[in-house]
Amino acid sequence: MYKFTSQSPLALSSGKHLKTYEIAYETYGKLNADHSNAILICHALSGDAHASNPESETENPGWWQLMVGPEKPIDTNRFFVICTNVLGSCYGSTGPTSLDPDTHKQYQLSFPVITIEDMVNAQAALIDHLDIQTLFAVVGGSMGGMQTLQWSISHPNRLKKAIVIAAAAQLGPQSLAFNTIGREAIQATPETPNIGLAIARMIGHITYRSDESIGTKFGRKLQEADYGYGFSTEFEIESYLKYQGEKFINRFDATTYLYLSKAMSYFDLIKSYGSLESAFKNCTAQFLIMSISSDWLYPSEQSKEMAKTLIKLNKTVTYCEINSPHGHDSFLMESNDLSTMIRSFLDSTS
Amino acid sequence: MNNYIKNKLIEQVPPHSKVLDLGCGDGDLLHTLKKQKQTSGYGIDIAISNIIECTRKGISVYHGNLNEGLPGFASQSYDIVILSQTLQQIEDPKTLLLEMLRVGKQGIVTFPNFAYWKVRLHLLRHGIAPKTKQLPYEWYNTPNIRVLSIADFKQLCQSVGIKIVKEIPLYTTSMKRLMLPKCLTNLLAPEGMFIIEKDGDA
Asked: Domain tally for chain A?
């Protein structure tokens, strides 16, 4: 993992600014002579810069090991792949757990609220630093898809292709509501924020799956033969969610969760630009927009609306709905269709 | 797609036009048009396998159902909108035809002709739902939700203000060389092909 330290302050959407900041990132593959083969991968809410381990499939695999590596759909033999930890996160980039240079203490809640646009502008400073004028592609799912959309709008001439997976121009009201409950849980337990963080993760985890996938895996199965007529963990889904919550508090920070969750809630291209049409009007990237059939957090309708707007604006866009029963998180799972689409889209010359 | 229909379609498309192909399949037609006539094209298809094939060929596509209409497309944004061998599978053909001519300056439509003499003879002789080369399905597994004849199509066009610019009868190999009178196409042509426009007076 590398670290980039900013040379100039970052003006934030909130009107505040960060005097200095660091961005943690990893790279795979080689940058070619004319610096034209770089792909930026954007991670989702709880992700980090470790998208892949090109050296080994089993040891310390990355969060998108399936997609990124030698001979993989995002082929590191061909592309120079960059994955950053987003601004505001807790995996090496500047965020609430970083030291405030003024006080020499952790920022915590004094860290300025950041937006997806701020994350993208910080990434752009890194891309400048790497001496890359135009990215071959920006790729991301979920919150990473939001960053990809923002890239295509904020820096239209700096990317050739944009792959937006399981994302939307704004969170729908139901998804927004689940986001707020997650933050509520953390803020309701200020002395023990990890309890809230575990609950937030449990809620999140349900929203990342479909009813069908939870049904197939757990159904209403009990751990014991019958009800215990008490309040211990009895259902298998209950035990699974608790496990997910506990696993998460060992690797994530509660305050950071508040900030990243808020950044997603604030993301709204329609509010920011007046309409989807005016948001996309200066885009020049070729788009591949993909949704997941069973994703109710970012339903296909929202992706279709973006695609239709781009069509109306006479932009180059392919829209595709990946058929999968696993819900929102399908973009992180094995899928032939998803892999083939990404590979073909990166290969296509038109 | 049948190569004969494909070639006939290609003949009708002027070079450098902007083409929208509804039910574009694996993108073969758009790809060939791009190579032979330097067209720019866009496709819509319902099958993911076709979306993947189109993407492989570098053709941009929208994965969707034509029964949802063409709401994303700006009016008169294409030169040609093609609907080949798909009309018989559409829930509301009248609306789709009008949508084609809202989005495109011209439309090209092809479909199997249900009044073709072999179809008529098949029904007359056997008394069961006709099966031919163009309509190869059993009545219970056909994707076609309706069948129509060349005469039916002409009648619909007239009633909704669609002008038929050109009728291109598609004959079987044995009949291609014969000079067949236009008035007999409904009987003699297994497939219909029409170039349509919005009627200025309608």
From this structure: 2
